[in-house]
Write a structure and sequence with these properties.
123 residues, mainly alpha, de novo design (two linked rop proteins), 77% helix, 0% strand
C-alpha cells in the first residue's frame, strides 16, 4: 500500500515527537542561549521532520531520497548539539539519553527508508 501522506510515515511521527522533546529540553536552557544553542538546536530538529514531509511531497523518488539525506544531516546536527548541551550541563542525563535514543531510532528508520527507495529506484 502506497503512503498517501507524510503523516502516515512512522519516521515523520517520531521526528515530530523528537521536536516536542527537544523544545521542552531547550526551554530550560540558560536565557543567554536563547539566540544561540537553543535556537540552533530547535532549527535543526524541526528540519528533520520538515525534510521528511517535503521529500514525501515531491514528485519523484529521487527528490524524496535527497530530502531524506538532508533530514539525516539535520538529525546528526541535532545529536551534536545535544552533546554540547550535555557537556555544558544544560540538560539532565535522562533527557540526554531519551533524545539520543530517539535520534538513533530515527536514524535507523531514515536509513531503512532510504535503502527501500533506492532499491525501488534501481529496479
Amino acid at each position: 500500500m502506497a503512503v498517501k501522506s507524510y503523516k502516515e510515515l512512522i519516521v515523520w511521527q517520531k521526528g515530530m515527537d523528537l521536536v516536542e522533546t527537544v523544545y521542552k529540553a531547550t526551554a530550560k536552557f540558560p536565557k543567554e542561549e536563547l539566540y544561540g544553542l537553543s535556537s540552533q538546536l530547535r532549527r535543526a530538529v524541526v528540519s528533520v521532520a520538515s525534510n521528511i514531509a517535503e521529500g514525501q511531497g515531491r514528485k519523484s523518488t529521487k527528490e524524496f531520497i535527497h530530502h531524506l539525506s538532508i533530514a539525516y544531516g539535520s538529525l546528526v546536527e541535532t545529536e551534536t548539539q545535544i552533546e554540547i548541551a550535555r557537556r555544558l550541563n544544560y540538560i539532565e542525563e535522562s533527557e540526554y539519553v531519551t533524545i539520543m535514543e530517539s535520534a538513533g531510532e530515527i536514524a535507523r528508520m531514515l536509513n531503512g527508508l532510504n535503502s527501500a527507495l533506492n532499491e525501488r529506484l534501481n529496479n
